[in-house]
Amino acid sequence: MSASPQVASVQSEAQRRGRIDLAACHRLAAHFGFNEGIDNHMTMLVPGFTDRFYLAPFGLLWSEVRASALLEVDFTGRLLAGHGLVEDTALYIHASAHRLGSQPRCVLHTHMPYATALGMLADPRLETASQSAIGFHGDIAYVDYNGLALDFAEGERLARALGGKSVGMLRNHGVLVTGDSVAQAFERLYFLERACHVQVLALATGRPLGVLPEPVVRATLAQFAGCGSVGGQDRAQLHFEALKRMLDRQLADYAS
Predict the structure, then answer these.
(1) How many Cβ atoms sit within 10 Å of the Cβ of residue 50?
(2) Residue 29: which domain range?
């Protein structure tokens, strides 16, 4: 039996908003310098489905991505809607990440510079030496490099290596960040790069990091857990909406 017109209308609106949010995510990543040419990928599950995702067609710069350009792709790589190329590593990494584990709604893969630089070190750990870094304590999986993800086996290896964590530091490669929404995933991506940036800057002084004691880290994590909303509104969503307003003033075509 087909969905009622009212249900179909609600689903259609959720899909429209999802497309806009994912297009905004691409534009914001380009704005902050998280992009690398036409490579890397950002996806979200199509609202109302658990077996297909939105993906920008390969060949676009992230600064060119529009909501209407996004493809719908199923977990086998079949193109369900839209026109454009589905890049191999995008399929194998993102289909696997969406399908396995906690089945996140949004999966972001970038080679953003400071997180990638940290992942190149012999010891790639993000140390709890800054407030932003504390927010990732216990939530990062460090994944060894094994070449390009050119089959499902490698994509599944990366997805399983997350082990329920929201961040994968792909050593000698980049990062994989997941979330239950585009806003949540972008919030993690943004603050991960900020935390890695200040750690790389601090290491560049040649002086030792002042890693915080574990009791302070645990107490601060509890504080973070208790202030995820402000006035009943989700902090990550408020941040994302503010960033979208910036795009609306400067690059409003992302929503078209």
Answers:
(1) 12
(2) 14-255
CATH number at residue 167: 3.40.225.10
CA atoms within 13 A on the CB side of 83: 0
Angle at 114 between CA 18 and CA 239, to 5 degrees: 35
- Separation of alpha carbons 95 and 252, rounded Å: 29
Domain count, the chain: 1
Q: Are 149 and 76 in contact (CB under 8 A)?
A: no
User: Burial of 4 by CB count in 10 Å (0-12 exposed, 13-18 middle, 19+ buried)?
Assistant: exposed
Q: Is pTM beyond 0.70 here? A: yes
Q: What is the pLDDT of residues 45-99, one digit of tens each?
A: 999 999 999 999 999 999 999 999 999 999 999 999 999 999 999 999 999 999 9
Question: What are 207's two structure tokens?
Answer: 């002086």
